[in-house]
Amino acid sequence: MPSAPSQSLETFPNPQPERDYTIRIRVPEFTCLCPKTGQPDFAELTLEYVPEQRCVELKSLKLYIWSYRDQGVFHEAVTNRILDDLVEALAPRFMRLTAKFNVRGGIYTTVVAEHRAAGWQPPVQVSLP
């Protein structure tokens, strides 16, 4: 049975909730539609997050991203909507979504949206000799 797009995001328990660590996910084939022309827009998404209690299950993320293929939406709106949905599903300590859209009319667009949990500070960077 073939898969179908879905707006559902599944999660699983963070295997190391006591530790700050970063998960990076690259999605090189994001597509949506331009709300003005109906033409396809292509982007590479990079998701970076420090999980709290839950992590995103990758197949559900793939199907969720696929659900935008036929939606007409501005770059800024879709980037923030995806971030909001992921924050709602995961409640991470920190999350950043970078959407690098391909050229359209001689213009490249990159949208970066971030979330920080209340009171969370990134660990201090230590320089090693």
From TrEMBL:
Database matches in InterPro entries: GTP-CH-I_C/QueF (IPR043133), NADPH_dep_7-cyano-7-deazaG_red (IPR050084), QueF (IPR029500), QueF_type1 (IPR016856)
GO biological process: one example: tRNA queuosine(34) biosynthetic process
Database matches in Gene3D superfamilies: 3.30.1130.10
Source organism, top-level taxon: Bacteria
Binding site for substrate: 56-58, 75-76
Active site: 34, 41
EC number assigned by the record: 1.7.1.13
Pathway per the UniProt entry: tRNA modification; tRNA-queuosine biosynthesis
Catalytic activity: 7-aminomethyl-7-carbaguanine + 2 NADP(+) = 7-cyano-7-carbaguanine + 2 NADPH + 3 H(+)
Enzyme class: oxidoreductase
UniProt KW Glycoprotein keyword: no
Keyword field: Cytoplasm, NADP, Oxidoreductase, Queuosine biosynthesis
Subcellular location: Cytoplasm
GO cellular component: cytoplasm
Pfam family, one: QueF
Molecular function terms from GO: preQ1 synthase activity
Keyword set includes Oxidoreductase: yes
Function: Catalyzes the NADPH-dependent reduction of 7-cyano-7-deazaguanine (preQ0) to 7-aminomethyl-7-deazaguanine (preQ1).
Protein family: Belongs to the GTP cyclohydrolase I family. QueF type 1 subfamily.
Protein name: NADPH-dependent 7-cyano-7-deazaguanine reductase
Taxonomic placement: Bacteria, Pseudomonadati, Pseudomonadota, Gammaproteobacteria, Chromatiales
Gene responsible for this protein: queF
